Amino acid sequence: MPAAVIAAVAVPTAWIARPDLVQKARELGVRRTLAKAWDRVRRGGLTAVVGEALTVPKDFIPTVVGTLTYSLADSAGMPPREDAAARNALPEFVDVPGVDVAQLPPSTAPEPVERGWYRSGADAQSTKYSALDQITVRNVRQLQVAWSYSLGTDVGDSTKTGPTVQTNPVVVGTHLFLTSVEGDLVAVHAATGKELWRTPLPAPAAKRGLVWEPNPDFTASRLFVPTSRGVYAVRAADGTVIKEFGTEGVVGTNASLIAPVIVGDRLVVATLEPAVEAYDLRTGARLWSRSLLSKPGGQPAALKGAAPWGGISADVQRGIAYVSTGNPRPAMIGSSRPGKNDYSCSVVAIDTKTGAVRWSFQEVEHDLWDLDLPAAPVLTTITREGRTVDVVAVLTKRGNTLLLDRDGGRPIFGYQRRRTPTSSIPGEQTAAYQPVFTLPEPFSRDEFTRDQITDISESARRTAEDKLRDARFGFFEPPVIGGKIAFYGVHGGAEWPGGAVDPRKGILYVPSTQVPWVIRVQYADVKATSKSGADLPGNTLYQSTCASCHGASRSGSYEWEGAGDAYVPSLVGITFLRRRDQLESPADFAARHERAGKRPAVTATNLQQLYDYFATLDQRADRQRSLSLSAFWQLVLDDRGHPASRPPWGQLTALDLNSGRKLWQVPFGRLDGVRPDGKPVLGLQNIGGVTATAGGLLFATGTTDNMVRAFEAASGAELWAYRLPAAGSTMPTVYDVNGTQYVVVVATGGAYKGFSGRSDRVIAFTLPSSAR
């Protein structure tokens, strides 16, 4: 969709759905509000600003496919529906063997473990591991605040959610680098928190990371910072853009969210185009570009999406970059993109010399559930059958760990492909099978079932059961027009911070979330306005009785996950979905509106008039071919705004990649004052991440209770905790300055329902001198 169209649709909707924006403008004043808005447009472009204003660049605006090319009144002319009987005649399971380890190439020498933190995620392998060991299980309880720094962001009402800083800080010597939500690249003194310099860049800058190019002469060293307008080369010492590199200091023109990776003499960048590109590290000249929307053989695929927003890692010795890709688009409705949708929901290995795809492994074929791969691949080495094996481990929203050999993308452990249900949407062609993994053991549930509905209180359960009353459950149950499916996964399982690995042991530590979602598909009329039915007899009745909830044009409404889960269904196309006797039934009307908490006073005659009104509008839209399908997902919450599934809603898991077995799993986070019996809820939503250290510790943050915690890596026992001003919004960074070890946390909060607000604080911790 062109930026101008997105802006035209999104901005008015944002002001209606986000009254806090109006209040913020009142607090700032018109002149200051306009000045700040213009600065954001100038630096980040209109599309970026709209996305940030909404705080939901993709989630808030529903998927709307092109108008239907067929008539709903002519069943014979509709595209065919899938044959459920033929699907059910297929074997239920198909076995896929694991690789013969004896046939794999020998393991290469392991990458040296850095004591610095030169790239977001620690290193090119995205290990999130520090070799520092001054802070240990014996002294971690003595951690104290070393310094606290304010990014200077105007967070408005700090009790509300909004944009957060997801940049995992990079540390080089005494310099710590991170960004603000406004797009400022900032350097602070790593031992004191004093700001050293600040450089404005197009927002979002280093949304999920940046990289420092190692150089013995720090004054000549460079940072490579992805932005909404290409990747900038910035002098690390003073923050100046290096104009001699690329075009005025920039390579590429497309938006990039994730940290680039340096492989030999080239800078490898992943863009939202989507593509992976390589640039000469000396000049900035582009060496190659590889589209992620190409099928094998180079033929363009008839789809969009597959954006590499999760992350990229590299095996420098092999010269291979590994990238996690997003879901195909249009999301949730796949009738216009038949097939597997290659390279989407996949880990793709790319030769950094040539740009050729070495291999790809797809977890979800023809995705309809937003089950993209959210996190950067983690590279490590394991021991199998007495041999060392170099592997790539990719965490997924389904709770799986894709464990593949680095050279061929072959699974280390065998798995099964399970038969899936068919879709009832005309023209949809679902994948007949989807994978089921038993090893490595899943770290969260793959399927939401009715027996997992919340039990924290009677009122919570009643509310959740009512909201899920007509939902469809099941393994890869496809979306349905006029209904909803219930499942886990939009925010994980795993999310974009991914996991941390101890490369010495091959143990992966995984934070995860497990909360329920629904996907709804409904009809939309792309030509409808508030006056569309003004010429019809039933318009006055509709506008006075129904429009206050369902909207003047029958479009309905819903809340995105940052606001809640309120939902009012669209009435567009309702006469094609339900029988006339149902729509004219006072009993049916009363039952449906009793659940909604609002029951307009209508008579049987009123319902007959409304049916005629709806039928006329539906038939008119059908004849004009202005009907389309609209799809969106929503959180499912209880009566107090908590997830509608049984706790734990978040966990921390240790996975032994050598055996594929879980070593331990513990609830992550704690919530008091919710259960009537006074017991705490253990295990909360989280989106901050985990870091492992040679001191036998895990530092983890991002839970809705706003804590940063230290766990014993060997057992999962919690050893230390500190309450932050808001939730940690990226994984902790661990570094050393002059022999003193620090742990720094960016505590800017979470953007979704359940998080308590925002701050602009960055807080570093260290031991007192007596404990070092």
What secondary-structure arrangement, pairings included, does this model have?
Layout: H1 3-17, H2 19-28, H3 30-54, E1 63-64, H4 84-88, E2 93-96, E3 129-130, E4 144-150, E5 170-172, E6 175-179, E7 184-189, E8 195-200, E9 211-213, E10 222-227, E11 230-235, E12 250-251, E13 261-263, E14 266-271, E15 275-280, E16 286-291, E17 304-305, E18 311-315, E19 320-324, E20 328-329, E21 346-351, E22 357-362, E23 378-384, E24 387-395, E25 401-405, E26 415-419, E27 433-436, H5 458-467, E28 484-488, E29 500-502, E30 507-513, E31 516-525, H6 539-545, H7 547-550, E32 557-558, E33 567-568, H8 574-577, H9 580-583, H10 586-596, H11 604-623, E34 627-635, E35 650-656, E36 661-667, E37 670-671, E38 681-682, E39 686-693, E40 697-703, E41 707-712, E42 718-723, E43 733-737, E44 740-747, E45 761-766
Parallel strand pairs: 3-39
Antiparallel strand pairs: 1-34, 2-26, 4-45, 5-6, 6-7, 7-8, 9-10, 10-11, 11-12, 13-14, 14-15, 15-16, 17-20, 18-19, 19-21, 21-22, 23-24, 24-25, 26-27, 28-31, 29-30, 30-35, 31-34, 32-33, 35-36, 37-38, 39-40, 40-41, 41-42, 43-44, 44-45
Helix pairs in contact: 1-2, 1-3, 2-3
